[in-house]
Structures are given as structure tokens and as C-alpha cells.
Amino acid sequence: MTSKRDKQVLGQKLLAAFRDAGAVEIAPDILLPAESLLDLYGEDIRARAYVTADPIRGEMMLRPDFTVPVVQAHMENGAEPARYCYLGEVFRKQDMGDTRPENPRDNEYLQAGFELFSREASADAEIFALFHRLLPPYGVRSETGDMGLLRDAVRGLPLPDPRRDALLHHIWRPVRFQRLLARFSTPAMARDFPVTRASWAGLRSESEMVTRIARLRADAATAPLPAIWSERLDRLFAVRGPAPEALAALRELVSDWPGIAPAVERIETRFAAIADAGIDPAQVVFDASHGRTTMEYYDGFTFSFLAGHPDWPPLATGGRYDALTAVLGKGRAIPAVGGIIRPGLLAELEAT
């Protein structure tokens, strides 16, 4: 059992390494305004955030992560390029879906992190190489993905905008995504909406219901997605292996699916930069489905570093979140990528 002091000591070492890499330390408040921030998190964090009502400040929440408040602070008055680092606790409720008494999730745990705001194409490789240098003593393995690849694939499906948007919205939820894909791949059943003289009742207005009925009728008339596209998506989601092998599989897909070619080229360029940083791509796993169940603000490169304990969460995670800066920048945006390390898990590894 590791002590809080052990975790803090490791956290301070990581923080010092981040400062040596050019980052400025930043300390977001522990209590944050909930209204604007909760909408930026994925379902998992929204469900597990500690939210309370303050009589003066309104709805507030205990800090569930650092990236969103750091981006918010940077977009208000930060210059570019910029590098930030931080160390502190985050707070999340227990995951009700994990009932294993021997391995409950922590309600509160320490995070050390690094965020990079830069227009340089090498930013992804810079972050990954930094984390890779810090974590090898712990015998971890690294995995990467690219949510931009998956989003580009869905955008290229021959579907009407409402169906395509629905799939993009649920790309983070594999089970729901597959159900929608199956529904869109079979002929829709026509629905009967008989004319009635009865008065409208319920929470929706008459105009809302008329609009909804028109949308359902239009959806029923939509041709199903040809089976070949579901097969291609299945092939894409299943791509996993050492980076050179995974890239070869992606290049084969490009021959049938030119729409993902720019994303595949971007991934190849990233691995070339990672190799230039002294990391053998053959030692890095690329998983096309990596990151599909993590924070929804990632929209490009994703990565994680894992220990040899199957029940443990990742020791470190991160990714690219360009769209988040546009939302918080109110029209101004800058490419950004970052990641966090959990000193508590590293301390437990040292103790074993």
C-alpha cells in the first residue's frame, strides 16, 4: 500500500520533468463552474462528476480533469505556442458498472499532465516522445489510435446528413454505434401517423410533433446503407497491431476507400516523426478503435501507456483536442494535444 507522500513525490518528479520540457506550471481551481463545462465532457465523466449548488456561484463541480479548465484559461489570454503542466487531484464518483470489490476506482486521485498548444505538425510526436521517455522504467507498453481517422470514415459514408451526424455523435459508444449502423443498413419500416381530430397533449408542442413526424417519414424513405460499407467499417475498427503492420492494413483499405487516405497519410507522417524521436514504431501498437470509450473531446491522435495488470486503468493517456479549443475560444482556435500520468499507479508499481 503506497502512501499519499509517495504519490506526491513521484508527481513532483513528473512535474519537474514537464517544466524541463518547457512547460509553465498552472493550477486550475478545484471547484469549477459546472454549467458550461459539463457539456464538454463525455457521458462517463458527466455521470461521475461531483456537482453541487452554491447559493451565489450557482451549479459547481469538483474538478474531474485538468484539460478542459487549462484550455479554457489558455483561450482566454494565452499566447501561442504554449506549454503547460500541472499536478493535482481530480474527483470522480465510483463507476457503478464496475462491481469488483477487489479493484474499485478511486474517487480522488492525483494527475500530472502536460498540454501543448502549437501549430507545428510535430506536436503529437513531441508529446508521445516525452511520455515515452518518462515511463519506460515502469515496464509499460504503449498503444495509439486516431479518432480523426474514424470520423473521416463515417463522414465518407453515402448517407443523408441526419444519419451521418447520428453515427458521428455515437462514435464514442461502440454498442450504440453498431445498433445505429445495423438500423441504417436495413430498409426502414414505414410508420403510420393517422390524421386525428384529437387535441395535442404532452410535453412537445404541435409544431415540434409535426416536424418530428416529417423527419420520421423522410427517414423511412431513405435507402439502406449498402452492406459493403458496414464491412469496410468492420475491417477498419479491427485494425490493430504493431504500427508497421497496422499501417500496411490501412493502406490496403485506402485502395477501396479513398476518403480515408488523408488520415492514413497523417498517421504515417506521425509515426515517421516518432521514429525520428528515437522510438521504434514496431514497439508501438496502433489500434484503430483506440480511444473510442474515453473522453469525447479527443478528435485526432490518441495514446495510452499500460502496465501489465489487466484490471488496472492506463498509467497515462492523452490525445489531440483541436475542436475543444474552438468551442472554448469562441471562434478562435489553435491545434492542441496533451496527456496525463497517474503518479499513484506508478507508486504502486514501484512498491511491487
Give structural notes.
By secondary structure, the chain is of the alpha+beta class. The protein folds into 2 domains: 4-140 and 307-351, BirA Bifunctional Protein, domain 2; 156-226, no CATH class. Helices cover 43% and strands 18% of the residues. The protein contains 14 helices and 12 strands. The protein has helices at 4-20, 34-38, 43-48, 67-77, 123-134, 147-155, 161-169, 174-184, 206-220, 227-237, 243-256, 261-276, 322-328, 343-351, and strands at 24-25, 31-33, 51-54, 58-62, 82-91, 108-117, 141-146, 240-242, 284-287, 301-306, 316-320, 336-341. The strands form 2 sheets. It has a 9-stranded mixed sheet with strand order 1-5-6-12-11-10-7-9-8, sandwiched between helices. Helix 1 (4-20) crosses helix 14 (343-351). The termini are close together. The relative contact order is 0.18. The model is unreliable at 98-104 (pLDDT under 50). L-histidine binds at residues 65-67, 92, 111, 115, 292, 297-298. Pfam families: tRNA-synt_His. One of its GO terms (cellular component) is cytoplasm. It comes from Paracoccus methylarcula. InterPro entries: aa-tRNA-synth_II/BPL/LPL, HisRS-like_core, HisRS/HisZ.
Secondary structure layout:
Layout: H1 4-20, E1 24-25, E2 31-33, H2 34-38, H3 43-48, E3 51-54, E4 58-62, H4 67-77, E5 82-91, E6 108-117, H5 123-134, E7 141-146, H6 147-155, H7 161-169, H8 174-184, H9 206-220, H10 227-237, E8 240-242, H11 243-256, H12 261-276, E9 284-287, E10 301-306, E11 316-320, H13 322-328, E12 336-341, H14 343-351
Parallel strand pairs: 1-5, 7-9
Antiparallel strand pairs: 2-4, 3-4, 5-6, 6-12, 7-10, 8-9, 10-11, 11-12
Helix pairs in contact: 1-14, 5-12, 7-8, 11-12
